[in-house]
Amino acid sequence: MGQRCGKQHDQPIPKGREESKKAKQSSLHLFFFLSLFSTLCFFFAVRFLSTSSSSLSFFGDKEIAFYNNYTSHSWHRHSPCSFLSNNSSICCDRTSYHSDICFMSGDVRTHSHASSVVLYPPSNVTINRNSSAEEKIRPYPRKWEGIIMDRISELRLRAAAPQDAPHPCDVRHDVPAIFFSAGGYTGNVFHAFNDAILPLYITSHRLRRRVVLVVLNYHHWWFIKYREILAGISDYPPIDFSNNTRTHCFPGAVAGLRFHGTLAIDPAKLSDETMSMQTFQHMLEEAYNEPKETKPPRRPKLVVVSRGATRVVENEGEVVQLARAVGFDVEVLRPTDRMPMARVYASLSRCDAMMGVHGAALTHFLFMRPGATFIQVIPLGVKNVADTCYRDPAVRAGLRYAEYEVLPRESSLSRKYGADDVVVRDPERVQGKKAWDVTKQVYLEGQNVTLDIRRLRKTLARVFETVVADRRRLLNL
């Protein structure tokens, strides 16, 4: 079973429209095949030549090496599409439990009216009859969850026959495309990062921002909200696949996204060490470009992430007073859909610790600097999902992790059901075979907490001592 974290929603949202600029046209000629190396270079060059002469501006030595990185997928371990051997190839890797991903090498053209991407063979290259003539893909990394996948637009990838007349190019691009969906649950910040942004970063990283994002289930507000991050992934405006009806031509394409795990980049799945959670965090730092602090503030800073609907801390004012008494400067952060991500990043990238009740807003731990402390308040019956969705990813991201696990007497469920009810005494028994449904309805959506101030003091005091010790150590370096 895949991960389920936080409140999931994917309300229909009016679509926007982004169009990419036309690539400048130029022409060169390639005449070098004096050695085996030159022949191989020519082999890759032919892939781009198939789009027409306007694509030839892409063919300096650096561009050939760059495209070699794109077409050689051996950088991702155990991929059945480790190499596309021919200029008219479609290869799909469907081995992952979470996501399918397909690769197209050659003259790739969009046909949005038919929800299709068509690969046209060049006249001087024989079609690989072993490759598929058509593949279908829903480019969203939750393929195990049929209910939501049914709401993701399906994309047809088709290899045209030699006699098929190609659609004329309205817009030519000299870099490849990545097709993915911004639908599903991505209206929720956890899923925005887990189902879209991190998989997109993994899939595109080797292309060094020289890639066009072509988006199914496009929502304009989503691209405004995450625009700084997406600019760190692609140097080009995104394309709304369904509403942009012009024919866009690319020298290659990827449909679908790689998925490494819950809020994860797993170096073990890569054949080199050029990508990690640390490189992702560095990309975020460059994207938001926060000015560096000349010296740390006098008191360590704790950000309390406040909730306003479910899993509310009913004595939040007392919690804030306690944290200040322990020694922290405290900022109460109430993220909303309208709050700019740059504002959230500015708060969390400078904090020493963040504390909040389990929920989607804790995904912002990704904005914290390595070595900072993440304190997760875990309501009754939520331990397993809290560990999977935030504890494990936070540790992988280089954060210190602490947790405050709510006791039955601190949960509003004790008032609602009674302290002796099985809902309070034995959540695992109640969850049984319908673990997620019960967890969501009873323990996530039906529970608030009142934290024991004396218990919490011990947790905050330990974190404070750790932060102060770190500061002293840095001053002595």
UniProtKB/TrEMBL annotation:
InterPro entries: Glyco_transf_61_cat (IPR049625), Glycosyltransferase_61 (IPR007657). GO terms for molecular function: pentosyltransferase activity. The chain crosses the membrane at residues 30-49. It is found in: Golgi apparatus membrane. Residues 279-375 form the Glycosyltransferase 61 catalytic domain. PANTHER family: GLYCOSYLTRANSFERASE, OS01G0956200 PROTEIN. GO terms for cellular component: Golgi membrane. Its main location: Golgi. This is Uncharacterized protein LOC109708746. Pathway: Glycan metabolism. The keyword Membrane applies. Keywords: Glycoprotein, Glycosyltransferase, Membrane, Transferase, Transmembrane, Transmembrane helix. It is a single-pass type II membrane protein. The keyword Kinase does not apply.
